[in-house]
Amino acid sequence: MRKGPLAYLVCGAVLLPCATGAHAQTAESSVSIGVGGHGLVASGRAVSFKERAAETFEFSARAGIASDYIYRGVTLSDRKPAVGVGMEATFAGFYAGATFASVKLPSQPSGEISMSGGYRRSIGKMDFDLGVTYFLYPGETVTGPTGGIDYWETALRAETKLTETIRAAGGFAYSPNISNTGAWGWYAAAGLGFDVPANRLPPNLGVSFTAAAGYSWFGNQYAALGGFGLPAYLNWQAGVTFTHKALNLDLRYHDTNLSKENCYVFTGDPNAQPGGRPDPLTNPDGLTSRWCSAAFVAKLWFELSGP
C-alpha cells in the first residue's frame, strides 16, 4: 500500500497542558477542564494557585491506563489500550514535569516522552498557566525524510469559576514546526465544567462533568512531504470524571469533523484503506482512516502528591 504524504506525522500536533499543580487530592477538588491537553495521565486537578502557600514545594506522581489514547479527537494508540506515567514538581508558581505514554504511530516510536515547564498564577478570579513542552519519540524505526517527529510547543491556558459549581476554561497553543513537518500550527479551545456539590454525594467521592471544543489550523509542510497545508479541523469531547481519594475514572466521548480521507492525510495511518474520494494533491489514492472518527474512551489513573 502506498504511504500517505503524512506517513511520518504524529497526529497529536499542538497541545494545552492542564492548568493544575501538584497537590493533595480531596473529594471536593474540581477536575480541570480538558481543552486539548496532551499526555495520557496529565494531572487533572483544578486548584487555584492562590489556594496554596506561595513558597511551598510540592510534588505529584501519577500512573494510569486508557482504552484508547485520544488527542484532540485523534487516536495516538491505533484504537488500542495505552498506559502512561507522569510526575511534576512545583515551587512558587513555577513547575516542571515529565510524562511517558505508550503510542502506536506511523514512525513506530517506542513511546512518547514529554518534558514541560512553566509558570502558573491567579489574577483576580482567573487561574493562568503559561508553559512550554518538548515532545520526544525515541526508538523511531521509520524516520522519513525529516529524520523524526520530535517537536516543541508553547501554550497559554486560563480557567475561572463562574459559580460555586460551574467553571469555564480556554486557551491557545502554538508550535512553529508541528511534528517536524515544517508546518506551523495554532490551536484554540474552550470548555465548561460542572462539579456536583459534595453534600449530594457519598463521602470521599467527587463527580465532575466537563465538555470542550477546539479548532486546529496549520501552515504548509516541507516540500519533501508534499508542500501542501495540513487540513484544519474541529474536535469536541464531553464526559464525566469520578474521583475517590487517589483514584480517578474518566468516561468520555470524542469526535472530529475530519473526513476519513483527510484523516489519512493528517495522520498517515499505515492501516488506511482504499475506497475514499481521491485528491490529486493530498490523497491521490483516496485512502481512508478511522483514527479521527467518534470514540468512547475509559481512563483509570491514580495520583499521589504532597510536599
Explained architecture:
The protein is mostly beta strands and 307 residues long. Residues 1-28 have low confidence and may be disordered. It has one domain (30-306): Porin (Beta Barrel), CATH 2.40.160. It has one helix at 260-267; strands spanning 30-31, 45-46, 57-66, 70-71, 74-75, 82-91, 94-101, 112-123, 126-136, 151-161, 166-175, 185-195, 205-218, 233-244, 247-256, 295-306. Strands 3-6-7-8-9-10-11-12-13-14-15-16 form a 12-stranded antiparallel beta barrel. It is globular, with a radius of gyration of 19 Å. The chain contains 1 helix and 16 strands.
Task: Sum this structure up briefly.
The chain has one domain (30-306): monomeric porin ompg (Porin), CATH 2.40.160.40. Helix content is 3%, strand content 45%. It contains one helix and 16 strands.
Total individual domains? 1
How are the strands ordered across the major sheet?
3-6-7-8-9-10-11-12-13-14-15-16
User: H/E element string?
Assistant: EEEEEEEEEEEEEEEHE
Helix content class: under 10%
Spatial shape: globular
* E-strand count: 16
Low-pLDDT ranges: 1-28
The number of helical runs is 1
Named at the architecture level, the CATH assignment is: Beta Barrel
Strand content: over 45%
What is the residue-averaged pLDDT?
87
How many whole angstroms does the radius of gyration measure?
19 Å
* CATH level-4 homologous superfamily: monomeric porin ompg
Quickly name the level 1 CATH class: Mainly Beta
Distance between the termini: 54 Å
**How would you characterize the largest beta sheet?**
12 strands, antiparallel, barrel
Q: Looking at CATH, which topology would you report? A: Porin
Structural class: mainly beta
